[in-house]
Predict the 3D structure of the following.
Amino acid sequence: MTAPMSARLATKGAINEQEKLIVQRGELEESLVSNVSPLKAPVIKVRGTGKAGGFGKSSSGSSSSNNNKAEGKEYAKLLQKEGVVRIDNVLAADTADQVRKYLYDLRKESEIDVANGKIQPIQRFADVLLKQNRCDLTVPMGDEVITRALDETLRLSPIGSTISSVFGDDAILHEFSCLMSDPGSQRQVIHPDTPYIEGKGPVLYTCFIALQDVTLDMGPTIWLPRTHCKEAHEEFKDTSLGSDGGESKKDALIRTQPAVLGTLTKGSCAIYDSRVLHCGTANRSVNGTSRALFYFSFKNPEVLYPGNPPSIREELAAAKVSLGDLIEDLQLLSKGKGSQLIARLGSLMR
């Protein structure tokens, strides 16, 4: 049954008022965060690599694989400690360019299909804080450019090994999407993607991959490292003012906790624990550049529901694809033996 016009207008007004409050809160938090530095790739010293924050695509498959595993273990240690870590050069520049074009074309096509009533918005777009000039476009699997991006990030870079070092090969693909922030998008409020649960470890690791250089004015993500813990979450939830009417514990945490900014170069990534506090900032690009972050997350296989709805195509979510199976399929594909898993998943896309 269709709601009366007055009810729909009231609902829309309530949403607009809520978003106005979120924008105001975001502006306040922007003034609180002062101890900010760029998120930098750490120096990872592994025998036989001798490089900082990146990886080498060796001509020897086994050598490259061994290096990635060794580096992945080191990145995983930092990720568990800090809650966020940067890895450079996970996607070739030309691949990033092609993925970006593919996804913006898909966005345009999807917006037209939604406007014409061919599909429902949820079939192409996930929910996101402050939708104006911002969207979360779920990505299909099966197209060659996306398969190549998966191969470069999961098989040829240390990303897959970093995640498997903590969750194992049975980690489940939980999200597969692209965050797009256009000029004019507002700053989000600081938030965790999932709650901290006493006695439980990490539930999700999310990997943001920059499809273009992300400059300071383009709305880079900001993270508060080491806030994926009980103490930080308790303080973050305490919004009561002090006995003297001073700031809340939440505001004090935001003001005093060192923050890092995701001014990533094209093809680099940030992997973060879903419990770490973060937000997308406002895109005030002077050149009118939209920021695109291709991303995926993997879920701890011991966790049934992590505490947030996933940004992923329904068909992919139902398939419960494991990290190990996905990498194995990419390895077969690299040897010219064809892809069974990815081809099957591609055939399911609607």
Remarks:
- Residues 1-12, 50-60 have pLDDT under 50 and may be disordered.
